[in-house]
Amino acid sequence: MARKVTRSIEYGGITLPALVHSEDSIQYAHQSFRVRDSDVFNLTYPKSGTTWMQEILTLIHSDGDPTLSRSIPSWERVPWLEQNTAAKYLEDRPCPRLISSHLPPSIFPESFFTSQAKAIYTIRDPRDVCVSLYYYAKMSSFLDYKEDFGEFLEMFSAGKILFGTWFDHVKSWLAYKERTNFLLLTYDELLKDLQGSVRRICQFLGKDLDASAVDSVVKNASFESMKGNKMVNYSLVPNDVMNQSISPFLRKGISGDWRNHFTSEQTAAFQCLYQEKMKDVEIKFPWDELQRKIYWES
Ligand code: A3P
Question: Pocket around ligand 1: residues whose beta carbon is below 6 Å from it?
């Protein structure tokens, strides 16, 4: 494969792809954007279920009616706060605005922290994040890629990657988990019980959907349905930016694909790194294999 030439920008210690970000766009997000109490944020480290939550939030907001999610691209419905197009999509939008972001708290709009705006933070097993990112980097024109998975894993583990290290991102957002306007979800939880998760999100947002509306959210936010929806499967993006014949954007949509990619040595090394980096985090996740206590059961 020809070596890719990727361009990135640096802001607040974080590296972002220059394709859709600029110093101005991040500065706008960090310093100029005015958070409204009715805003709903979809927060993630990349490849953790951002697009899935964009679809779920759109459908909940539409009371289960898929018209909006099938007629407007996901990045316009639930735009990224830090991207060049944010002001265009968000400034005049009526409430409630649905907004995505990969930014860490250190460069998130300060007004968020004193507002009533709601935030949902979705976390995924970092090993699956790494595998998902590996294929995304392979198919996209704007991300650094290493053909050798071991080398890519080293880059990911060292945080020499866009949006910084998974560990810092997760730990810095987890600091807000006790706030009533903050909902913590895992990708695994969405996979295991999408209907229950949709009900939880509705309750958090104060949205009273009837059973058929909830069923419609679940049906239209399924992996199969999203794969067939060109407004969310990224087939609208030109091939030279995302080449889906190399790897589809909606690739496998499962948990545990890391088992098909990590060697036993890589598994052990990542486990050590994880335990060291996460030793102060009290919450247990479904992937905390040494202390298998699932946090929503504790
Ligand atoms: P895989 O590459 O493992 O398949 P993001 O939107 O944050 O970039 O995350 C993309 C990942 O979420 C991809 O993971 C994608 O397939 C998965 N995903 C998106 N929608 C999903 C759904 N409805 N069900 C399960 N996984 C989904």
Answer: 44, 46-52, 128, 132, 135, 221-223, 226, 250-253, 257
